[in-house]
Write a structure and sequence with these properties.
The protein is α+β, with helices and mostly antiparallel strands and 400 residues long. Helices cover 39% and strands 34% of the residues. The chain has a domain of 130 residues: Band 7 domain (Tetrahydropterin Synthase, Chain A), CATH 3.30.479.30. The protein has 6 helices and 21 strands. Helix 2 runs antiparallel to helix 4.
């Protein structure tokens, strides 16, 4: 059979002869086929974020990191596939198993990293409890399947269902657990499902806490469910498997529908009574406030009246004191005037007397009988007192 075939540039073909031998031909070429068949080969490429998995017909496998390009060889290759490298962020890690000379080793690769496994390596695949797709409040096995561990603080929601109190009330306790993976090697050695361990431990702690309390006591002590001391089994189990519990947050509880209805009714009644009590208390407080203000106002009024009276009395005292002072000044002025007048009169009288004495002394110096002069001068006395009798009288004369 005769035919012509063109192999384009950038292509490769395998040309098979009738005896089964193969020749690899790269383009550009134009071949004349005579009792031969041609097969165009596939070129497999990987970018820097990928790698090639080359499976050989002799059974071994090679991984070739990108960027790379390999032509499929129908003689040597069984299959060539392209896969993406494993991107590991700074807060992630993977567990890698390596087989060498019949021995398997395990190592932890932490990010940031763009990891390409070799042909004799494989990644640990985790299968843990996770949220049920049909009911997010429940955890079911094997719901979480992954290869990359998060080594930063994380959290999970979990509801501890059908917990019975001391008086046989069934409640569902809602929690949020904050945890952090501290030791990957210990986790791998001690557990295959840390979430299941958390669920079992926290369930045991909540049952121990609730079983010792009645429903009313449980409601009064729910704040203890947010204390890490309430969860000793959880903390102990987490430390044993390489985890550290940050805190446990209580998110509330849910009781049975009948019990919840009774509880809601009781809450409504208590709320109504509390509101009525607060309303009455506010009314009483307002009345007390009004009475206090009225009493303060009356006291202020009394103080104002007392201040006004005291002010009036003070003004009167000032006026009286001023009047007394003025009278004292007038009296002193009058007394001073009288004193001065008397002094002037005395001085005048003394001057007259001195002048008269001087006059009489002059008359006496002239040998004038002063007695006769004085009698002649005062011929008409104001009063005449006559005393009769032979005996010597005792005479007292008082003249006003």
């Amino acid at each position: 059979m005769f035919a012509m075939k063109t192999i384009r540039q950038g292509e490769r073909a395998a040309v098979w002869s009738r005896d089964g031998k193969v020749t690899l031909v790269d383009g550009p070429q134009r071949l004349m086929l005579w009792d031969r068949t041609i097969e165009l080969l596939t070129r497999h490429t990987a970018d820097p974020n990928q790698y090639l998995i080359i499976q050989f017909k002799d059974g071994h496998t090679e991984h070739q990191r990108g960027p790379a390009a390999v032509w499929f060889d129908p003689v040597e290759h069984a299959e060539i596939s392209v896969k993406s490298a494993v991107t590991i962020d700074a807060n992630e890690a993977i567990v890698v198993y390596h087989q060498h000379e019949g021995r398997v080793d395990r190592r932890v690769v932490r990010g940031p990293e763009l990891y390409v496994p070799s042909a004799n390596e494989w990644l640990h695949r985790f299968s843990w409890h996770g949220a049920d797709p049909k009911n997010a409040r429940r955890k079911v096995p094997h719901a979480l399947q992954f290869t990359k561990l998060r080594i930063i603080p994380d959290q999970m929601y979990f509801d501890v269902e059908e917990v019975r109190t001391a008086d046989d009330a069934l409640v569902c306790v809602k929690l949020m657990i904050f945890f952090e993976l501290a030791d990957i090697e210990r986790m791998l050695d001690q557990t295959h499902d840390p979430v299941a361990d958390f669920i079992n431990a926290v369930t045991a702690d909540v049952i121990n806490f609730t079983a010792a309390l009645t429903f009313e006591q449980f409601k009064e002590q729910t704040e203890r469910l947010s204390e890490l001391a309430t969860y000793p089994q959880l903390a102990e189990r987490a430390g044993r498997i390489g985890y550290r519990i940050g805190t446990v947050v209580y998110r509330g509880y849910h009781a049975s529908d009948k019990l919840q209805a009774m509880h809601d009714s009781a809450i409504e009644t208590r709320t109504r009574l509390r509101l009525e009590s607060e309303t009455e208390e506010q009314a009483q407080t307002l009345a007390d406030f009004k009475l206090t203000k009225e009493r303060e106002r009356a006291a202020q009024k009394q103080d104002m009246e007392q201040s006004a009276v005291q002010h009036q009395n003070a003004l009167k005292r000032l006026a009286h004191d001023e009047s007394a002072r003025q009278q004292q000044v007038d009296w002193q002025r009058e007394l001073e005037n009288t004193r001065k007048t008397n002094e002037l009169e005395v001085a005048h009288q003394q001057a007259l007397n001195a002048e008269r004495v001087a006059f009489l002394q002059k008359m006496q110096a002239l040998d004038i009988d002063l007695t006769r002069y004085l009698v002649a001068q005062y011929q008409h006395p104001d009063r005449v007192i006559r005393i009769d009798g032979s005996e010597r009288p005792q005479l007292h004369v008082h003249e006003n």
